[in-house]
Amino acid sequence: MRLENKVVIITGAGSGIGKQTALIFAREGAKIVVADMNENGAKETVEEIESQGGEAFFAKLDVCNREQSKQVVKDTLERYGKIDVLINNAGINQDALVQKMTEEQWDKVITVDLKGPFNCIQAVVDAMTEHGTGEIINVSSIVGLYGNIGQTNYAAAKAGLIGMTKTLAKELGKRGIRVNAVAPGFISTPMTAGVPEKILEMMKEKTPLKRLGQPDDVAYALMYLASDEANFVNGAVLSVDGGLLI
Ligand code: NAP
Prior knowledge:
- This protein has a single domain, classed as NAD(P)-binding Rossmann-like Domain (Rossmann fold, 3-Layer(aba) Sandwich).
- Helices cover about 50% and strands about 15% of the residues.
- It has helices spanning about 15-25, 40-50, 65-80, 105-130, 140-145, 150-170, 195-205, 215-225; strands at about 5-10, 30-35, 55-60, 85-90, 135-140, 175-185, 235-240.
- α1 (about 15-25) packs parallel to α2 (about 40-50), α1 (about 15-25) crosses α8 (about 215-225) and α4 runs parallel beside α6 (about 150-170).
- It is globular and about 45 Å long.
- The structure holds NADP nicotinamide-adenine-dinucleotide phosphate.
- NADP nicotinamide-adenine-dinucleotide phosphate binds next to α1 and α4.
């Protein structure tokens, strides 16, 4: 198994990409901390993992809350004694054209999508340093690389996450901690469920592979980065977009 006995915290694992990643990682032998503020979704993820014979527990987490981030780390260490992988996946979007975007929309998206990962990273770094190894993977977006109309807040947060990834890859590498990012294109999840069909069709048409991504597509890229197979991969931003960015 590719992730045997790895202890993996996945934020936002109650839905979409995070949920699918949790299920796939558990099948590869990882012990999953399903960290989400969506309690129902997260508990369903835990039940599904357990019903397929895997191991997981639910940790209530709003990534904006620094105390909760520290508590999740404390609970994980009490239960498993180490943290191998942190996947900063929780994220939201609140779209509007720039003149219509409210300060609340700006602040909320920057806080969840950019400060949230920072909070979780700060909370795990000591434990990973002590352990002498660790992998942190940030779920950015194609939008952080090439922008998107109506997503000033989201694009800024996701581009900021790439800057954070590269900085921490330099800062934490000497402690044995790798820091990488994935940049998904358009993936079929509850987040994109509200996007008008016309826009999704346009995105499919622009994508060389002529389809939208599925949560599995991102989960397998995350699995590679989380596994020992990626032991010399650090500071990378792996696009998972069917070639849309080309
Ligand atoms: P999703 O289905 O909406 O799942 C996101 C999960 O994060 C939900 O369970 C959500 O809970 C949770 N969450 C939201 N705010 C949180 C907070 N403050 N603290 C903890 N958990 C929180 O979205 P997804 O499409 O799987 O997206 C996962 C990640 O991929 C996000 O970072 C997103 O930006 C990124 N991404 C997605 C796409 C795409 O096309 N789907 C493309 C590029 C990047 P609630 O359900 O209660 O809100």
